[in-house]
User: Fold this.
Amino acid sequence: MDTCPRVLKNSTFGNHVNTCMTKSLTSHSASALKGHAPVPGDKSISHRALMLASCAVGESRISGLLESEDVMRTRDALSALGVTIRRRESGGWTVDGVGVGGLQTPQLPLDLGNSGTGVRLLMGLTATTPLTVTFYGDASLSRRPMGRAIEPLEKFGAHADARHGGRLPLTLKGSGAPVPIRYRTGVPSAQVKSAILLAGLNAPGTTIVEEQIPTRDHTERMLRLFGADVAAEHRDGVHRISLQGQPELSPVHLQVPGDPSSAAFPAVAALLVPGSEIVIERICVNPRRTGLYQVLADMGSDIRFVNKTVVSGETVADLKVKAAALKAVETDPATAASMIDEFPILFIAASMAEGKSIFRGLAELRVKESDRLRVMAEGLKANGVKLEEFEDGIAIEGCGGPPHGGGEVKTHLDHRIAMAFLVLGMAAEKPVSIDDGRPIATSFPGFADLMNRLGARIERGDMP
Ligand code: S3P
Assistant:
């Protein structure tokens, strides 16, 4: 029986959205958003915390873990690889690490659902241990390129059998006699860098990864937290990370900060809905993740980072956000990696700004959970926004106020597309509908409930 209220409210993070959210949702014009927004734990850090705790010797404790579908897939995969992971009654998680190289062959193929981070990092973690593991995922993940991770992992001595074009499902045969590698990544990708570092954990000697554009460094920071020897240097235009292999990792108590990529949705919503004023607490403000907030400042917003502290190797702050009139912007392609997941919501902000915004150097957006350039372009057009799509970007004619809205948007199994257009509906003249709100549970369970508590009106929709 469906017991959902028509307007979703007053639920906590967790299963509510999974079990209760119907497919389509409609977002109506919101009253001023007010209050405190508790955003769930960082997705990148949560995956890594479970993986590195699994490789420590003994019991680690993790608090603030993101309990979303993506992260729970990683938990299930690690359990299938022989690690005991428990949720404590008091909240928080306990992981009984098996030590570097201690994972076991799973009985069944591993289903990573929608999660690119889960599958690519686990490929790295299993590539230098003599295991045979089959990975698969949903329709979105099955379209995404895995060759970028397979290529360096085969240099360690692993072997992958993938579907045509390096797609899932794939079977990875980890190496029993791995060799450390030196590898320069071809695309700016923290997932590829992290897959290499995690593989390097069980290779004797020094593994070196070089990147032209530095990407998020949570893996490096967390490896140090667990006691690994990791060095990073920037020389001659190259960012170089070196890891000494086969360390004994010590268990830790780790706190996961709030996710800046999830915080981006309530933050932009508060900028766009007149009269709004919200505080988003305990967000990770690692500079490799906060590019969006710099761009929003260039557009005329006044978002303040207050109460800064360092927790488990990451800088954390509260974000104070007030509504603001925004002006157009042109982003520097070199900063794209520091905000790679935030472009969908940034395009929504640009659609309401005064003037034409230009975003280039974004070819990577075409291989995310959906082709985010095409899907955002289609959705914005359906809501009365004028734009031009390029192979590597988009130019958006800002409306200098609320766009017409009234569109029905196809989200293509992409959580960030879904949340971006629900935010547009809060500020547009007419309600905006999305065909499927369920993927939101991959990164931000409780999103609709939280936004409704702040003043939004997200309702179960009537799209066919
Ligand atoms: C992530 C890296 C990024 C990002 C993804 C999370 C990570 O992907 O888009 O959501 O946790 O390392 P790429 O490495 O493909 O850029």
Remarks:
- The longest strand covers residues 314-322.
